[in-house]
Design brief:
The chain has 331 residues and is an alpha/beta fold. It contains ten helices and twelve strands. The protein has a seven-stranded mixed sheet, with helices on both faces. A five-stranded antiparallel sheet has the order 1-5-4-3-2. Bound molecules: S-adenosylmethionine. S-adenosylmethionine binds next to α6 and β7.
């Protein structure tokens, strides 16, 4: 249960956020417009000004840590006078959300684990799926065969709407030369390869011949087999063996998560200006948001998400598509 929120309804969230940062110094710092971060020994919180409220998101590695972050933040906010009666600025704060005074406390929402955070409601997901270009017969049959042959592993395949997104993005950047890391049974490869011109090339990296063999007849049926160059072996070796030149227009990463930082490092210098890197599963089912999860996959994903957001070579945006998709465009 390491994530919890509290909301301050206020008529001037930016001014209120600035006051919070001022009063929680040196533990608080502004991290962007309308955003601040508070770092404490056992965890910390993000403070965001948006709409007519200030939102505080507390996070810690375990329940005990979260309780002390909540306690400390609540105590210091109240003690700092943010919500005291008679304070002109704090008079904007509605008493129902945060109450000041003897024995009063910040009202935190019930704590949840990152895995419990519903990124997109299944109702919305279903609606999105029903309102994008539908998968054609080859893609539908590939999905059905993948379920039959690989069982539970079929969950690794990109969804039809994500496949449509990949085709659209590759077309929009006018991709001719593309890289894919993580082929599985070839659904995403097919979506990308279709968006390339007839003489285009997708270098598709995977370690499994068993899974990629399933892809081949479907690539052939779709008429894109000659655009896909399958490279079997650890993707990092394949990428490092590529010429060290900005020759690629498009890249899609959807493979082993601990490998993401290396894939990102190898791919970005090989993208031409305007070229697009797309990364899948950047939320890891919400676990990436939750510091309680410290597995290799989560640590690597946080590292790459942070690095991309800071990377001056790239413009990036993170989309709540399925399990999170990052688009990073080479400047
Ligand atoms: C999530 S699946 C890819 C799904 C695929 N994009 C699709 O739409 O069907 C991940 C793939 O990454 C591959 N993989 C895992 N580790 C790898 C590595 N070190 N190098 C290359 N591929 C790897 C796996 O064999 C698996 O096929």
């Amino acid at each position: 249960m390491p994530l919890s929120t509290a909301r301050f309804t206020t008529s001037d969230p930016d001014r209120h956020l600035a006051r919070i940062v001022e009063r929680l110094k040196p533990d608080a710092q502004v991290t962007g417009p309308g955003r601040a971060k508070v770092t404490l020994a056992g965890g910390g919180c993000s403070v965001l000004a948006a709409g007519d409220e200030v939102l505080v998101i507390a996070a810690a590695a375990d329940a005990g840590g979260l309780a002390s972050v909540q306690e400390e933040i609540g105590r210091r906010l109240l003690a700092a006078g943010d919500v005291q009666a008679g304070d002109v600025q704090a008079a904007d704060v509605r008493a129902a959300d945060v109450r000041a005074g003897e024995g009063e406390r910040v009202a935190w929402a019930e704590a949840v684990s990152g895995e419990q955070v519903e990124l997109v409601s299944p109702i919305v997901e279903d609606y999105l799926l029903a309102h994008c270009t539908p998968a054609d017969e080859v893609l539908r049959e590939l999905a059905a065969t993948t379920r039959e042959v690989t069982g539970r592993s079929a969950g690794m395949q990109v969804s039809a709407d994500e496949g449509a997104l990949l085709s659209m993005l590759a077309r929009m950047v006018g991709a001719r030369r593309a890289i894919e890391v993580g082929v599985f049974t070839g659904y995403s490869s097919l979506c990308i390869a279709r968006a390339l011109p007839a003489d285009g090339k997708l270098i598709a990296c995977d370690v499994s011949t068993e899974w990629t063999d399933i892809a081949k007849p479907f690539w052939k049926r779709a008429g894109v087999a000659d655009r896909i160059e399958l490279r079997i072996g650890p993707a990092v070796d394949t990428l490092r063996a590529l010429p060290d030149e900005p020759a690629f227009d498009f890249a899609f990463v959807d493979a082993d998560k601990p490998g993401y930082p290396a894939y990102y490092e190898e791919i970005v210098p090989r993208l031409r200006p305007g070229g697009l890197l797309v990364l899948d599963n950047v939320f890891l089912g919400g676990r990436v948001l939750d510091p309680a999860f410290q597995g290799a996959a989560q640590v690597a994903m946080r590292q790459v998400n942070d690095a991309i957001a800071r990377d001056e070579r790239l413009d990036s945006v993170m989309l709540p598509v399925r399990d999170g998709v990052t688009l990073a465009r080479r400047r």
